Amino acid sequence: MSMKADGGSCLYSIRKAGKVLEQKRSYRRIGILVAVLLVAAVAAAAAHFFGSGLVRRTTADGMIAGSSEIHVMILGVDERKDDVGRSDTLMVATVDPEKGTASLLSIPRDTRVAIEGAGYDKINAAYAYGGYALTKKTLEQLLDVPMDYYILIDVHAFERIIDALDGIDIDVEKRMYYEDPWDDDGGLVIDIYPGMQHMTGEKAIEYVRYRDMEGDIGRIRRQQRFMRAVLQKVTSPEIFAKLPEIVSEVAKSVKTDLDTGDMIKFLQIMKKVQEDGLAAEMAPGNPAWFKGVSYWIPDIVEIRRMAARAAGVPFAGEAAERAESYAAKYKADMPEGFRFDDAEPQQAGAKTTGEGAGASGENAAKKKEEPTKPPAPSAVAVTVVNSSGITGAGAEVAAILQAKGFVIRSVETGKRSDRAQTTITAGGRTVDLFYGMPFPCILMEGGAKDEALVNIGRDYVKR
């Protein structure tokens, strides 16, 4: 991410955040997606030791189904102590063992769906209500496709698996710097320089978590680079000596109803990614808001058309009629008050090969924004967090801001004293009000337009 100095001491790091509370976990979701593909690649490296048939286990009565395709629900779950956990990533892998092909369909976690016993809610709530079984049932109803198997992945295992590989080599395409003070782990700082680098698990996840103005397009390209690096590593001859350690880490991170032979057979197909590319699409739909909560409203007919295409069957007859009927019911069940941000359904499909992958979704990803003026400082409530370890720094910064007309909501002491740089995060044009601060800082865009967060780092020098 490029940063430039304004007239004063602050750097401006653009952070399109929308609702911060809705986005603070988005980077972890990217990490889960990559972890899923990584697990596939690791198992593919060991696949030559085993052989097994992979067969459909679920009857497809009244659902879209081809002759040989297997559908696997892949669920990335963030489980914590005293917490039932939540699904942060949900994908469907459609595998054809006869043709040796595979495709991925990603379901946004905010997708509004009907959940048995709970009414309409976001699809990631299904896991909290009834675990993977209810998630499976909910997904089958949405897609009209039977799920034959499931794979549940622990999000916290990503770094351990990369480290078990002794790291990977990635040619970083540009300078990357990013801060997210709302990250669940006490704050996220990404600081990566361009060029060929050997990355540990920690650094690799920073690379795939990085976000810039390219949005989904940029993330897809970084995932491509990451996948190529991982596949190159796990298919190299020297990796076989490390297989016991790698398989051990994978085993601790994955729950599935695939037996060992089935999983190896399923994941063996993923090795073709290295040659043919992986067809990866996102469920089409529109972003919407209802009572302050964001949702993804799926285009049900188009989703089911995609499912039929992946299964290799025509989307016609009873399947098309069921889709139209369910879409009509879904629309009729929507309460009044939904606000849609886009008039046309968005699609983010891409085949993850080549530098131009995902470019077709670029126009859909760009938001049309009305030019607006920043509010007056007196309309902005500022929270000051002193994470510098310097006594009195919080009160001093609060006084500076008060003198400029801002309203100080609170002055707090941060949990950490190792934050290197001072950051100011404010929503929309509000961030413009903080140019020219008399202390070094990085400006980031995020949050509500009438709020701001000042997080003081070790670079602060007390007056």
Automatic annotation (TrEMBL):
Q: Which family does it belong to?
A: Belongs to the LytR/CpsA/Psr (LCP) family.
What's the protein called, per UniProt? Cell envelope-like function transcriptional attenuator common domain protein
| Coiled-coil region(s) | none
Is rRNA processing tagged as a keyword? no
Query: Any stretches that span the bilayer, and where are they?
Result: 30-50
> Which InterPro entries does the record cross-reference, listed alphabetically?
LytR/CpsA/Psr_C, LytR/CpsA/Psr_CW_biosynth, LytR_CpsA_psr
Source organism's superkingdom?
A: Bacteria
- Which keywords, in A-to-Z order, does the entry hold? Membrane, Transmembrane, Transmembrane helix
Domain LytR/CpsA/Psr regulator C-terminal residues, every copy: 380-426
Please state every residue range assigned to the domain named Cell envelope-related transcriptional attenuator: 86-235
Q: Where is this region: Disordered?
A: 339-379
PANTHER family (alphabetical): POLYISOPRENYL-TEICHOIC ACID--PEPTIDOGLYCAN TEICHOIC ACID TRANSFERASE TAGU (PTHR33392)
